[in-house]
Write a structure and sequence with these properties.
Helices cover 29% and strands 33% of the residues. By secondary structure, it is of the alpha+beta class. The protein is globular, with a radius of gyration of 20 Å.
Length: 174
């Protein structure tokens, strides 16, 4: 059976977008924190009135650009509801990955239920190896509570999804 070219292009484009969103979410969650603008960098200067070396200025600009790119991808990620992708693992085996975004409806022993936009919900199994982050900070499954906004990356084996990573989106301060 021959697959139409437009389907191959559409599928490839979707995979590229999903990979870019995943990289952006990872960068936004794990990236270095930036110093507030306008704060003097006294520890790095060798003498009063000395300026920061041009190399450090360029490095700081690149860091700011990466942070801006990460925040743009995070804004895009907020529109994600459910993503299902089939990829190959290190051994070349096909693996199905889910990314779910929504509000935690309930947390039970060994599972978390995420309520997604549009009224659907996903119940995902958890185990001791499930990694949890609150923003950029490490956390535990005990920190996941009903009402939290989360992104959950799951691996589907035998039809049941197992949550590998949970990112609790920290509430914005006013």
């Amino acid at each position: 059976m021959r697959i139409p070219t437009w389907r191959l292009v559409l599928t490839s484009s979707a995979v590229v977008v999903l990979v870019a969103v995943g990289i952006g979410l990872t960068a936004a969650a794990n990236g270095p924190s930036l110093a507030p603008a306008g704060v003097a960098d006294a520890a790095r200067t060798s003498a009063p009135g000395a300026t920061v070396a041009p190399q450090r200025d360029r490095a700081r600009e690149r860091l700011g650009e990466r942070a801006a790119w990460g925040s743009r991808l995070l804004r895009l990620g907020r529109h994600i509801v459910h993503v299902e992708a089939t990829v190959t693992d290190r051994d070349g085996n096909l693996v199905t990955i889910w990314i779910d975004h929504g509000t935690v409806q309930s947390v039970g022993s060994g599972s978390v239920t995420v309520s997604e936009s549009g009224g659907s919900s996903q119940t995902l199994e958890t185990d001791a190896a499930t990694i949890v982050h609150v923003g950029r900070e490490d956390a535990t499954l005990a920190d996941v509570t009903a009402g939290d906004q989360v992104f959950v990356q799951s691996r589907v084996d035998g039809g049941s999804p197992l949550a590998k990573r949970i990112l609790i989106v920290a509430a914005r301060s006013s």
